[in-house]
Amino acid sequence: MHKRTLLQAAAAAALLGASGLAPAQDNVFKIGLILPMTGQQATTGRQIEAAARLWMAQNGDTVAGRKIQLIVRDDTSLPDQTRRLAQELVVNEKVNVLAGMGITPSALAVAPIATQSKTPLVVMAAATSSITEASPYIVRSSFTLPQVSVAMADWAPKNGIKTVVTLVSDYGPGLDAEKYFSERFAFNGGKVPEKLRVPLRNPDFAPFLQKVRDLKPDALFVFVPSGAGAAVMKQFGERGMDKAGIRLIGTGDVTDDDQLNDMGDVALGVVTSHHYSAFHPSPANKKFVAEFMKANKNLRPNFMAVGGYDGMRVIYEALKKSGGKGGGDALLAAMKGQIFESPRGPVFIDAQTRDIVQNVYLRKVEKKDGQLWNVEFDVIKDVKDPGKSK
Ligand code: VNL
Fold it and tell me: Cα(52) to centroid of ligand 1, in Å?
């Protein structure tokens, strides 16, 4: 019975199409953007949604004859919700592309749905190396933690840092950061006397920072996800770690542009390695930052915004290149190998790995015109994810 009803519905739909009375729907190209809009990772959702809307405002909402519809859903960063929403978007909304993914567990939860439904999944935030291996339909526009961590492990020993304690959020990206930083740092002759892990949900940094104070390394290397950096910085200052001669280093997630300006002087001089700074001096970035801030009550874009903006670019370009047809495999093929100038600098979607190849910058927090910025002072060009060298 059920099957028959479905067949009849399909036949009716085909008839409608043939008679030229197809609903406007058919012309619509749907992007299902699943993000954490509330809860602990809400800043990531806000940044990416704002960037996607900016992209559309700048580039129009018609591509290769198709009307682009952005469908935003809030997964509150709970992977069960992400999975449920992805299922619903694929089955009921018939989205052409899935996108977003604020944290690694969300991306991994959706990977099998992308594979089974042959729907490209553009990962705009989550950054554990292995994500792109979870489905051949995943393309990433963000970054990976191994990609940005190695540069710091090369910089630190050349700058008087011989012992480092690592402190990471205890899940995929944190474990990647810990591994790739500490292995490279040890290879360069450094010592890592302790590796500390804090829970992802509601972390209390105090006992961990006390431990670091007692160990008294030259520096503390930190990875916490976007949104958690200010809390680390505040407690680092309150415990007088900087005055005790312990430097703070890390990936740029900790000096996140979304929060940096409110962190206060404790952040001054902190050196991090990352793929994006809102202070990146290119004309493309200056335009991006100015227009983003104008459209969002002076909110400064962070690296999440750039992942969202570039992810939209990858989708638009793929739709154009595949002649507006919008089938999953054609879109995926047209996403692979894209080369373009991002606000972060030149980037490339590696056709083999479907991961992003990009510059990694060393940056130091400085005050310019009364505001705190991550000021780039060195660059390692065209860095591939070192997690993929198997
Ligand atoms: C992840 C990686 C999330 C880096 C982040 O912020 C981040 C992730 C929300 O893969 O879960 O800064």
Answer: 18
